[in-house]
Design a protein that fits this description.
CATH class: Alpha Beta
CATH superfamily: Spore Coat Polysaccharide Biosynthesis Protein SpsA, Chain A
Distance between the termini: 23 Å
CATH architecture: Alpha-Beta Complex
Bound molecules: guanosine-5'-triphosphate, magnesium ion
Number of strands: 7
CATH topology: Spore Coat Polysaccharide Biosynthesis Protein SpsA, Chain A
Length: 249
Amino acid sequence: MDNSVKVCAIVPVYRHEKASCHVVKSLASLGIPVILVDDGNVPEGHQVLVEIAKEFPDVELVTHECNRGKGAAMRSGMDAAIVAGFTHALQVDADGQHDMKAIPFFINETKEHPEDLICGYPEYDESVPKAREQGRKITNFWVAIETLSLKIPDAMCGFRVYPLDSSWPVMKRLRNKRMGFDIEMIVRLSWAGVKMHFFPVKVHYPKDGVSNFRMFHDNVVISMTHTMLCIGMVLRLPLTIGRRLFKKI
Ligand SMILES: Nc1nc2c(ncn2[C@@H]2O[C@H](COP(=O)(O)OP(=O)(O)OP(=O)(O)O)[C@@H](O)[C@H]2O)c(=O)[nH]1
Ligand SMILES: [Mg+2]
């Protein structure tokens, strides 16, 4: 077990400032420093985040003047995490859908496998919207083609611990600043040869929850992401075949 790992949490926030307070509280109770990224919230929302950062000593607030998307928010958060000297970053959504009780297990796995991505796959209860569940299945089918493997059981879960050394170079090259971010990031990490371990995390959609997912627009963005990644897979075929022949990945 590697006890030199320094893990922080990155919480990107857009229209989830109220729910993010509970998320930060849970992280603080586990003693995990937090980088809260205000992704261009309205002034009242920004003020809520400023108050949270004042209340909890181990919270750093990074602010985008206007909304730039989850991917851009994660990039700013990772940048701040590296500057602050962290080795790993737990990405967790601000809407409180993920079961925070899973965190100690994920951190333990990070210490066991510090070079690798420790990634959640969702275990839904009956609250999950059926369209979102179907959309995930379609995405996971395309991701199997893009990586030419079955090693990624879920590519959309926003609950992951990134090893910053290997993730930052991939993050810097990412095109997708918005909804396709989680998908593009995990496919490119797989292309980069980063090993991954997947564990279940319970996901609950509260009745009065705020979702930023725009059914038509975001599905178009996700389809474009898959098109780009499929082209990338074809261009990388000689490299992939070479690596597999020589058993490098
Ligand atoms: N969608 C979206 N989320 C953002 C943005 N900027 C930051 N976020 C944060 O990214 C996380 C994911 O956003 P959600 O709206 O929950 O998207 P999702 O989890 O894919 O969608 P649901 O399954 O409907 O909850 C949350 O913590 C948001 O607050 C943005 O521009 N758009
Ligand atoms: Mg969500």
